Amino acid sequence: MPRDIHLIDHPLVQHKLTLMRRKETSTSSFRRLLSELSMLMAYEVTREMPMHEVEIETPLETMRSRLIDGKKTVLVSILRAGAGILDGMLQVIPGARIAHIGLYRDPKTLVAVEYYFKVPHDMQGRDAIVIDPMLATGNSAVAAVDRLKETNPRSIRFVCLLAAPEGLARFHEAHPDVPVYTAAVDRQLDEHGYILPGLGDAGDRLFGTK
Ligand code: URA
Predict the structure, then answer these.
(1) 198 lines ligand 1 (CB under 6 A)
(2) Tens digit of pLDDT per residue, the chain (210 long)?
(3) Residue 129's CB: how many other CB atoms inside 10 A?
(4) Which atom belonging to ligand 1 lies closest to the Cα atom of 193?
(5) Ligand 1 centroid to 165 CA: how many Å?
(6) Fold designation for 5-207
(7) Are 85 and 77 in contact, with CB atoms under 8 Å apart?
């Protein structure tokens, strides 16, 4: 595995992922599990976040202590399934700004087509965390990061729940400077671009649209 792929194999993450994969898991459970998992993934992806020291007063003394540069973080949600990760991440990074990139996969060509792009005006100097549950063909992830790079953020990280080897290779080739955080790397893609064994269509399972 390339060194900039971070496999989040914490038992809590793996347990919740197994529950999400099950086909009998309900929409409400799927949504709750994804939100819980997102909090745990936020913990991993923020490990090396820049911090600054402030002076505070405890009930007993004055001390210098550290805070995360929380307002510098921007969570970049790839619509629509990225929305399932956003809530959980915001619970642990409440000061983050939010960006949205709307992309859909052309069902025939599997190419990512952009229909929405809204990011904070001051992206320079911000640390971007791009979120999308599934890194499948890698087309959406590559297109999202291509666009994001035009805004010059200080750093970019990509977080997903599941990745396919094909998508990881494609993403890594296009953006070798962007680390990927994932809870699992599955076996392969099927002919429709779905991850096997996977968990099905993350958006449909999240929003109950199928
Ligand atoms: N998107 C999904 O929601 N599921 C897959 O398996 C692949 C892409």
Answers:
(1) yes
(2) 445 899 999 999 999 999 999 999 999 999 999 999 999 999 999 988 888 999 999 999 999 999 987 668 999 999 988 999 999 999 999 989 999 999 887 878 878 889 999 999 999 989 999 999 999 999 999 999 999 999 999 999 999 999 999 999 999 999 999 999 999 999 999 999 999 999 999 999 999 998
(3) 27
(4) 7
(5) 13
(6) Rossmann fold (3.40.50)
(7) yes
Among protein residues, the one with the nearest Cα to ligand 1's atom 7 is: 194
The best mutation among 23, 27, 195 to test binding of ligand 1, ranked by most ligand atoms within 8 Å of the C-beta, falls on 195
What's the 130 CA to ligand 1 centre distance in angstroms? Answer: 16
CA trace torsion 141, 146, 149, 150 (10° rounding) = -140
Atom 3 of ligand 1, nearest CA residue:
201
> Which sequence spans correspond to the domains of the chain?
5-207
The secondary structure of 43-77 as a DSSP string is HHHTTT--EEEEEEE-SS-EEEEEEE-GGGEEEEE
Pairing of strands 5-7, 62-68: unpaired
Residues marked active site are found at: 105, 109, 201, 204
